[in-house]
Write a structure and sequence with these properties.
The complex is a heterodimer of chains A (174) and B (66).
Chain A: H1 5-38, H2 42-77, H3 86-118, H4 121-125, H5 132-150, H6 157-173
Chain B: H1 2-6, H2 12-34, H3 51-55, H4 59-65
Classes of the chains: A mainly alpha (174), B mainly alpha (66).
Amino acid sequence: MTLPPALRRLTLAVHIICSVSWIGAAAAYLALGLAAQLSQGGELVRAAWLAMELTGWYVIVPLGCLALATGLVIALGTPWGLVRHYWVLIAFGLTSLALAVLLLHMPGVTATAALAAQADDGTAAQLGGDVLHPGVGLLVLVFVAVLNVYKPRGLTGFGQRTRSRRLRPAADSS
Amino acid sequence: MQRAASRPAVPRWVKVLGIVLAALLVALLLAMLMTGGQHGPGRHQPTSLGSAGATVPGVSLVIGIR
């Protein structure tokens, strides 16, 4: 199935906006996680965890879901395909992995934010921050974005067979 | 020779990426083994929250102080 040009452009626009926003939101989350990690003040740690929970559930998770969904639609609705080119397949795999880790990670963030909300300043200050997941996640997202821009060559076995089938009738007729 | 031509080689950048990702995965698994698998939020929970709060990260921490 091929998307009509107008719908393809709309989906691509939403995909770019969501993907880039996901990177920005992850960077903001990492700043909060670092602040909580480095701070000795209970108030700042508490505020950071509450902000991380809200940012995570209401900004990062929806953006991640939308970026993955629109990416899938574009891949399946254009000649690029999902499994024809290595860069598309790898970008899809890494994005799915990042989203899965995010969804598994967020309940822990909610629990820690609830703990921070109830704890006194001294206890909240001991909660620490959240650096590893957002840090690695940000690297993965940036890598996927670079992959999407450069689109390095390389057809998968399936892509090669599909191209051969498309070229064969033309070769036979000549 | 013909077989090699019909089955295209995997691009070098894919091979390099695969090796890097495999190395990172091994490093991650080793790090998780060395830290006892605790790497998420709540791994630095204060011990002043009681035994349930100190030992079980995540949701049970909240339940532990309620």
